[in-house]
Structures are given as structure tokens and as C-alpha cells.
């Protein structure tokens, strides 16, 4: 796969150079593929798909076994098997099924789309784009490919290209609900809340409680000042996804903006006091304490919120609403018993050897126990399926604990290259470059993070002031230092 950085070109050029422009994903094949559709197979796949949508995975599996018996070399069958296995938590065999589909149909559009989605989850937006290109070259009328391609371009920050992809989707599937939804996403990102609301309502997806649409509905409500409505929508999503810290933060923000400080303190003060709480959550709860006149509680949280970030992420934090086995493992870790946590993790891996999520839990337990090589081995399994920012952070800690700083630095640069709108990752990379005296790239990364909305972070602003000073720009240095000072609440900090 070739390196093909798009906008913002300067940023990506700098990051790809740091990462060695090394790509972890394979290149898409270019062989054409064509096949006749068997009506019996089409029926089985259609019914199996409906069963999967309803959660009847066992029945869907029985139908797909029947389809595979009829045509074991049909790539459509293997794509459906990959989807089923992924839904069932058998992530590693889902990858095997997707590979089998591509072997049988190197130019088969659904198989290429499946690989594009898997590469996006495991390696980032940049690596997935050539696979989307290949899927669309194989079948330019594939509405699913255009919708996912448009979403990926938007998440990668290429909003103009996203708009062109949405227009193409509208040409080939004008009745597709995703046309209006994706247009609503673009309008919301462009600050056009009224238009975004209208387009979202036309899509009908929020009314059907599609999670992404419900989240967009909440974000639009926040922009329009409808804080209670936003909180209601976010409450529903947070109940469905109890481990999603970002949703929890948005919910707290909506409650605070709606003047519900007492509720914020009652429900989230304990969460904000935990070691794994984000600085943003700590700041929000601190502001609630402050408005209620509890300056002492506010001071303690604000001191944490504005302190330099720790180098070691908290692993195996306890969360409400998790499955019992997972909760027990996390409880062992919280009780200071890493040996028991590791034993529980080994038991879970024996029960679910094909799950990337369980592999990640095992890696966390190993990292907590000080066994960095075992943690890296487990994280590598999860990274074949998904590579979220938290996983990258934990793998970096494991690499550094073994003395392999170069591997940690390269992993971080690759993450930013694949996900260049991830503000915490941009800041982490900039901090490392600043420590090495690479102030030009440090400034470039921090300016990008500020443009994305990261300018409320005092640590970022202090580092940007330092970079400006090192580059001989005293005026900009003073301006960034002043902005950082404006954010800091010195009167509330415990001394």
C-alpha cells in the first residue's frame, strides 16, 4: 500500500515521516470478479441477515451453514459468515472468514467492503481508504460502500470529499436514509444546527433510535441550547453503552449547561474522583461544585483537571452495567489483587479464545501484574480487530516498560497518521516531539489540535507557548501563555 496523505497535507506529511509511512494493513487486490447469483443462496442470506438484525444469531448460523453446504466457494456466503462471527464476539474467526471471502473473490465488492471496515477499525482511517476505493471500483453502485466511505472521509477530516461521496450516494440510492443523515452530520460540523436538525428529521434515523443518529440529535440539541433534550437522549445512549466514557462526559456537560448542578454532583462526583476519570470530567464536576458554593471540592478536582497528564493509563477500571465475569475481574484489580485479576482473565480467555475484547482484558491484567511481554502479546490480538486510542496508550506503556521507546513512538505516530482528528493522540505526539526539541512539528500538531477544539487544554497551550518561544516568535508565545493563564483557576487551587 502506498502512502497517500490528503488534507491536511503538512500535518500528515510530518506524521507519516515519523511513522516511516509503514502501513500495517495489506494492499487491496485489483483482480476483477463477477459471479451469477443463486436464488436459493440469496434467500438464505437475506433471511440470515434479518435473523442477525433481530439478535437470533444461532438461527442465522444454521441458515449460513446451509448456504455454505450448497456453495462452499461463494464469497457472499463467507462475507455473511464473517458478519455473524463478529456479531457473536468471535472476532478472530470473523477475520478468517473475511480473508476466505477475498480469496474466493479478489474483486468481490462486498468482500472488499468488509475488509475496508475491518482495516478502518484495526488500522485507522488512512489505511482503510484504498480498500474503500477498491470496493467502489468493483461496484460503483454499492450504496453501503458509498455510505461507509463518506462516513470515513468525514471522520478523517475530509469534509469536502465526504460531501462528494454523499452526493454520489444520493445519485445511486436517493431513498437511502443515510443520505440525509450524512448531510446532517456535515451541517452539524459546519455549525448549521437548524439545517442539521431538518436533515436528521428527514432521515428518520433518530426516531428509530439508531445510536449514531441519537448522538447527533443530542449534539444538535446542545448547539441549539436545548440542554434537557440533549441530556435525555444522552441518558438513553449511556445506559446502552455503560463503558463509553465520551457519552458520560457529554451527558454531564448537558446536565451542567441545563443548570442541574445538584444532579451532576450526586450522580458523577464519585466517578470524577476516580483515578481513571478524564480531566474533562473532573473539570465539569468541579464547575458543578463551584456553582453550588462548595469551593473546597471544586478546588481538589480542578487541581487534578489542570495537572499534567499521567504517563500510565488506568487499566481495568470498574464500571456499572458490565457483564458479571468482566465486573468480577475488574473488582479484583480495584481491590489491589492483580494475581486474581490475571487468573480470572486466563479463565475468560479459555472460555472465549476468539474474542478480541477478552484478549484486551487479559492484556490489561498482565500489564497490571507487570508482565509487559504478555500484555503486548494480548494487545496484538485485539489490535487485529480494533485499535482504539486507549489500547494504543496501554501498548505504548508496555513497550516503554520493556525499554523499547522506539516502538512506542512509532506506534503513537501511526495512530495519529490513521486518526488525525484525535486530540489526545495529537497532544501526546506533540509532547514527545517537544521533549526532543522538534518544535516545528510540535507547533504543527498543536495548531491542528487547537483547530479541532482542543484549545481549552492549559497543558496544550503552555506547550504551544514554549514551541513559539523556541521558534523565535515571542508575540505568539505571550499570546498562548495568556490564554493558558485565563483558563487556570488559581484562586481555587489548594496550595
UniProtKB/TrEMBL annotation:
Supply the alphabetized keyword list: Signal, TPR repeat
Family annotation (InterPro entries): TPR-like_helical_dom_sf, TPR_rpt
What residue spans do the TPR repeats cover? 75-108
Q: What is this protein called?
A: Tfp pilus assembly protein PilF
Q: Which residues form a coiled coil?
A: none
Signal peptide range equals 1-24
Q: Does the keyword Cell membrane apply?
A: no
- For whether the record's keyword set contains Signal, the answer is yes
Which species? Answer: Erythrobacter sanguineus
Amino acid at each position: 500500500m502506498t502512502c497517500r496523505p490528503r488534507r491536511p497535507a503538512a500535518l500528515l506529511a510530518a506524521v507519516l515521516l515519523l511513522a516511516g509511512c509503514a502501513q500495517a494493513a495489506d494492499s487491496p487486490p485489483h483482480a476483477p470478479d463477477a459471479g451469477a447469483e443463486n436464488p436459493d443462496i440469496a434467500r438464505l442470506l437475506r433471511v440470515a441477515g434479518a435473523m442477525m438484525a433481530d439478535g437470533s444469531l444461532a438461527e442465522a448460523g444454521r441458515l449460513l451453514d446451509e448456504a455454505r453446504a450448497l456453495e462452499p466457494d461463494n464469497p457472499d456466503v463467507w462475507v455473511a459468515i464473517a458478519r455473524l462471527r463478529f456479531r457473536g464476539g468471535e472476532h478472530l474467526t470473523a477475520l478468517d472468514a473475511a480473508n476466505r471471502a477475498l480469496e474466493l473473490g479478489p474483486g468481490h465488492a462486498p468482500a472488499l467492503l468488509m475488509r475496508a471496515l475491518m482495516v478502518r477499525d484495526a488500522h485507522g482511517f488512512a489505511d482503510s481508504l484504498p480498500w474503500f476505493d477498491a470496493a467502489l471500483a468493483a461496484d460503483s453502485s454499492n450504496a453501503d460502500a458509498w455510505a461507509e466511505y463518506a462516513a470515513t472521509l468525514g471522520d478523517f477530516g475530509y469534509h469536502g470529499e465526504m460531501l462528494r461521496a454523499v452526493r454520489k450516494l444520493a445519485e445511486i440510492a436517493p431513498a437511502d436514509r443515510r443520505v440525509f443523515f450524512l448531510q446532517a452530520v456535515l451541517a452539524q460540523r459546519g455549525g448549521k444546527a437548524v439545517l442539521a436538525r431538518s436533515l436528521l428529521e428527514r432521515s428518520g434515523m433518530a426516531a428509530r433510535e439508531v445510536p449514531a443518529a441519537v448522538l447527533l440529535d443530542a449534539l444538535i440539541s446542545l448547539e441549539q441550547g436545548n440542554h434537557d433534550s440533549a441530556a435525555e437522549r444522552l441518558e438513553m445512549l449511556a445506559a446502552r453503552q455503560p463503558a463509553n466514557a465520551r457519552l458520560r462526559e457529554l451527558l454531564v456537560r448537558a446536565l451542567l449547561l441545563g443548570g442541574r448542578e445538584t444532579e451532576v454532583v450526586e450522580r458523577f462526583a464519585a466517578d470524577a474522583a476516580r483515578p481513571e476519570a478524564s480531566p474533562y470530567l473532573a473539570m465539569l464536576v468541579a464547575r458543578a461544585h463551584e456553582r453550588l458554593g462548595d469551593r473546597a471540592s471544586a478546588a481538589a478536582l480542578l487541581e487534578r483537571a489542570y495537572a499534567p497528564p499521567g504517563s500510565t493509563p488506568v487499566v481495568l477500571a470498574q464500571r456499572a452495567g458490565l457483564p458479571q465475569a468482566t465486573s468480577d475481574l475488574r473488582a479484583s484489580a480495584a481491590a489491589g489483587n492483580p494475581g486474581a485479576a490475571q487468573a480470572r482473565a486466563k479463565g475468560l480467555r479459555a472460555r472465549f479464545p476468539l474474542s478480541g475484547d477478552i484478549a484486551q482484558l487479559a492484556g490489561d491484567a498482565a500489564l497490571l501484574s507487570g508482565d509487559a511481554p504478555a500484555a503486548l502479546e494480548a494487545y496484538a490480538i485485539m489490535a487485529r480487530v480494533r485499535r482504539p486510542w486507549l489500547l494504543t496508550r496501554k501498548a505504548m506503556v508496555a513497550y516503554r516498560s520493556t525499554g523499547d521507546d522506539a516502538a512506542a513512538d512509532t506506534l503513537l505516530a501511526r495512530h495519529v497518521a490513521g486518526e488525525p482528528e484525535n486530540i489526545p493522540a495529537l497532544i501526546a505526539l506533540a509532547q514527545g516531539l517537544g521533549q526532543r526539541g522538534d518544535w516545528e512539528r510540535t507547533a504543527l500538531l498543536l495548531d491542528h489540535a487547537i483547530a479541532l477544539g482542543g484549545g481549552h487544554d492549559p497543558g496544550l497551550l503552555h506547550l504551544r507557548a514554549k514551541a513559539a518561544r523556541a521558534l523565535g516568535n515571542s508575540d505568539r508565545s505571550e499570546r498562548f501563555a495568556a490564554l493558558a493563564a485565563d483558563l487556570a483557576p488559581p484562586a481555587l487551587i489548594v496550595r
